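ugh ok so i messed up the first submission bc i forgot one of the chains. this is the corrected input, ALL of the components this time, i swear. 594 residues overall. if the numbers dont match what u have on ur side tell me asap before i send this to the collaborators (the ones from the other lab, u know who)
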Amino acid sequence: MRAAFVIARQEFLDALRNKWVLSATLVLAGFALTLAYLGSAPVGTVGVAPLGVTVVSLSSLTVFLLPLLGLLLSYDAVVGESERGTLLLLLSYPVRRWQFLMGKFLGHLVVLTVAVVMGYGAAGLFAAWQLDNITAQEACAYGVMMASSILLGAVFVGLGYTISSFVRERATAAGMALSVWLGLVVIYDFILLGVLTKGGDFLGNGLFNGLLLANPADAYRLLNLSSFDVTANLTGMAGLASNGQATAIASLISLALWVAVPTVVAGLIFSRREP
Amino acid sequence: MKANAMTEDAIVSLKEIKKSYDGVRTLDGIDLELRPGEALGLIGHNGAGKTTLMKIILGLIEPSAGKAKVFGMNPSGGLHGAVAQRWGFLPEAVNFSGAMSGLEALRFYARLKGSDVRKCPEQLASVGLTDAAHKRLKAYSKGMRQRLGLAQALLGKPELLLLDEPTTGLDPDFTRTFYRLIDERRQAGAAVILSSHALAELEPHVDRLLVLQQGKCIAQGDLSALRVQTGLPVRIRVSGDDGAVREKLADLADVQSNRINGRTVEFICPPEQKMALIELVCRTRGVEDLQIELPNLDRIYSHYSKQGNTGKAEGGTEQ
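and heres the new structure output, hopefully the right one now
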């Protein structure tokens, strides 16, 4: 296990060194602050929006952004080291394959956590300072949004490892990572929407909810947009998931599985890979 | 019983190792035993299977057939961690992640290996990298990366050193330091496997050779035995001032001779006649100097690789 921590530490230090942490934090903070300040502009007001509004607008953005960050961090974890020729040396050390991936995962998780906590946290504190009426539920929704954003990022970190352990070239990994992002974050919803408009009747409510939960991006949306009254009322999703708590638990299970399964699959593929 | 005991104290023991990729044989029936303090030179053309052999010893790939044991254990088995602590590896054209400094990189590897991090500056100094300790690895030249590569391979006083083309890109000065550090480990009881193209510089630092050609071992043994086995001639140059003596010597010795200049004759004699000829030379009046040139590694290698080629051609026609 020590080997995994040594690699995690190095991964995080590398991300600090090459300004990865800084730029990710700045991007997230920039978006979060802008949305917190201008989130109500579409409805005609400029100024710090109620925190519930920020949670809704910020999580809609996060659905696109965090998967991208996760994939960018992870897509070359194996194939990049292999191409640079550092993998062969590293694996000659007392490091097992799963420890290598676990170390990478922990390091990348810390990078995401620092970026989200500092970026979104800054915006949250700014909003709290500007607003004088923040309900406990709003604060809680914001906290859940931050935590689940990290989880969503972790899902795509795991997917990135699967790709990275599988392909032979970095460029292929980058292309596949982009396809996975497009597929899960953009196209999946379009198809679901298309099916729904064409004749959604045969898609029962249960099946539709199931299909939403099956996609990590939609599970994240469900968790943040419908499990708290304060956000569900804003998004009109109150009817979609009438039972907020059950939806929240189901989304969390979906996200957790989406973290675990691709990471384990990556480990299995990687253990068969010849460096 | 005795053979068994020998196998047990062998650091590396390979039996009938075969490895194929998509039906192509990269290694074909390699046997090897390496004991503490022994240094093996692994020679062969590019693609002969040298790196594949090292990867099998390091447990990074599994052989398609045959048995590999390192420190008495299967290197790719569940105890990889325990054996990996006892070896040091320098891959060909070693590379490091560019964001770290040399010292940070060495500390990282020391942590992974569980060796003392505080000794790292001292270890960098031993490979002459003190001035570059805090420089980013991006700015390292090939030779500097190779030095750092050696420093990491020597971490934790390994009992087995595997060095793949270690001296390419090193200046002659550091090449000497390099071999001194390797010889030190060897004297302390470590087994060493060196692959190199620079056969001349390899020669004084290995006591056994394994010649690989297209995955097959075409020769293995200690240098002097291989010398005799090849039947390559020994060249003996004799100089003297008396022409008559010179002529007489040329007549007496039943070997081929060439006049180099007015004072020197070169005898090209089969290895088994070497001692007889030297004796004769010493008894001849007027001989002032004597130089013996044994067939060097280059010659031995080219002898075997030619032989391997013809052997292969014959095998091809049989089928």
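quick check: The longest strand of chain B covers residues 24-34. that seems consistent at least. Chain B has two domains: 2-228, 233-293.
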